[in-house]
Design brief:
256 residues; Hypothetical Protein Pfu-838710-001; alpha+beta
Length: 256
């Protein structure tokens, strides 16, 4: 995507150290999904309003995430059924730095997202000694019931509002691996605005101007729904159909 590299040079940079003030571990999230075909024009409208995370000269970061769930996918089903006070458990590796974190995200009954994490190098639980105590403090069930559910890979741009405490993450080149099933969504863009409290922002204004409505399915639930034929997905049907239209691709391929 040559056009993307050209546009990203127009943003002022921000370092990891400078981003410490906008971690936003307790926040509101506003999500959008749209086509890569709209992305260039959207970015052009916000270049003066945000700084972009730059690590060792790179402005696009690669992420590798392993999500965990129970054997019967109880965390997935809780999300599917629209229940609040729901959790996501994942190990995320930042490819450029090699740093990994075990993370627990809670979506509470007030609509806020609360994230806790500890640095752990390995994504496979059981290779570290301190993960059980961390999980037991945060989960309403025993972590021994968790098992790997799906791998999710993508590339991310992270933008920081120049004026207000707001982060904007933009995910591209999504790939889901669930056993032998692989699903790639190369034409999809997932954007997420993270704020202390939901308020106006340049990106939210851009979404309104481009007639892109708020709403998305989580990457974890999207991956499970697209790669598991037997799982319940009725409540995600409208969102999956929307994603299919955006990507013009409705098949999951087998690993070769």
């Amino acid at each position: 995507m040559i056009f993307l590299n050209n546009i990203l040079t127009k943003f002022d940079p921000i370092s990891l150290e400078e981003m410490d003030g906008v971690k936003l571990m307790n926040r509101t999230d506003t999500k959008f999904t749209f086509s890569i075909n709209q992305f260039e024009e959207i970015l052009q409208t916000i270049t003066n309003d945000y700084r972009i995370l730059e690590i060792e000269g790179k402005r696009i970061s690669k992420y590798k995430t392993l999500y965990y769930d129970t054997e019967d996918l109880s965390l997935y089903h809780k999300h599917h059924n629209g229940q609040l006070n729901r959790h996501k458990i994942r190990h995320r590796t930042y490819i450029e730095t090699g740093v990994g974190f075990l993370e627990v995200k809670l979506k509470n009954n007030k609509g806020r997202t609360i994230k806790n994490r500890i640095e752990i190098s390995s994504g496979m639980l059981g290779h570290e000694n301190n993960f059980e105590e961390f999980l037991e403090k945060l989960l309403p069930f025993k972590p021994v019931n968790l098992q790997p559910a799906i791998w999710v890979m993508y590339e991310r741009l992270t933008l920081v509002n120049k004026i207000n405490p707001e982060r904007l993450t933009i995910d591209l080149q999504l790939e889901f691996i669930n056993g032998k099933k692989i699903k790639k969504l190369r034409n999809l863009v997932i954007a997420e605005v993270k704020q202390v409290n939901k308020k106006k922002s340049p990106f939210l204004s851009a979404m309104k101007n481009f007639h892109i409505r708020e709403g998305s399915i989580s990457k974890y639930c999207m991956g499970i729904a697209l790669t598991n034929e037997s799982v319940k997905k009725n409540n995600f049907k409208e969102k999956i159909n929307h994603i299919t239209l955006l990507t013009n691709d409705n098949t999951a391929s087998n690993r070769k």
